[in-house]
Task: inverse folding
């Protein structure tokens, strides 16, 4: 059985269809700047009384991108959170 990860197949073959199925280009356009904006909130060296500051990252995204809907903000936050956690694992 071939396992899939978030990005590609383990056997290197293209997924059926071969086209880019990702959506939300308006979120993709701001993803890099959102990662830079929220980086301090995901820094393990930062914290308040030993607690993570990630809850403030969502607020920072809402303030920086007020044009996003609640759903878009949640989607962006989830993507940014995955990005920062993947960097911490390495």
Result:
């Amino acid at each position: 059985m071939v396992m899939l990860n978030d990005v590609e197949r383990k056997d290197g073959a293209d997924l059926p269809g071969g086209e880019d199925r990702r959506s939300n280009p308006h979120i993709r356009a701001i993803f890099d700047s959102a990662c830079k904006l929220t980086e301090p909130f995901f820094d393990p060296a930062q914290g308040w009384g030993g607690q993570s500051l990630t809850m403030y990252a969502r607020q920072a995204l809402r303030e920086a991108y007020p044009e996003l809907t609640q759903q878009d903000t949640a989607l962006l936050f989830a993507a940014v959170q995955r990005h920062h956690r993947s960097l911490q694992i390495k």
Observations:
- The two ends are 27 Å apart (CA to CA).
- The CA atoms of residues 22 and 61 lie 21 Å apart.
- The chain has a mean pLDDT of 81.
- The chain is about 55% helix and 0% strand.
